[in-house]
Design a protein that fits this description.
The chain has 193 residues and is mostly helical. It contains nine helices and no strands. One of its GO terms (molecular function) is DNA binding.
Amino acid sequence: MSKPDNLTFLQQRQQLIISAAKNCFSRSGFHGTSMADISRESGLGAGQIYRYFCSKELLVNETIKSIAVSWRVFLATNLPQQTTTKDIIDAESSFWQDWPFQDRCLLLEMYSEASRDASVREMLAHQEQLLVAELDKQFAQKSPGASPQTRTNRIQFLLMLVDGVACRAFGEKKVDQQELKRIDGILSRHLLQ
């Protein structure tokens, strides 16, 4: 096998394992999933998995990195298109359509892991820095008259809102429409211009 073919095969195999790990982690969490579970899910032997990921910790970290990068790309694509909070708050809206429910579950698991593991916190902080910089560029183009502080406020608010909705994925789905309308009005005047 040539080097490019070998690299492609390596990347495909790693993605297969990460995909299987995501399925397992979304059902049982990072700490409730064994390598045997991932082996069964992927159809690969444990020895084959260890050839690509030398430890479960490394596999967890690579899975978290995959989720965090996807989350950043999703938000960088979707947040600049929103002008109201309604689509963001409604977990069933078109805003969330391209973000699978399984990945929302994994976000919670990922944030939980970050509370225990400094390397995960650093990884997530890096992805957030990239996201904030990208959103700031997009918002500066969209609203050239907005001050840097206004853009920063908008970005931070939207990120808190999105994180809250993602964390609420298992909870109450009903939203008070009057309150939502009031919040939209405030945001339109102060943050979303």
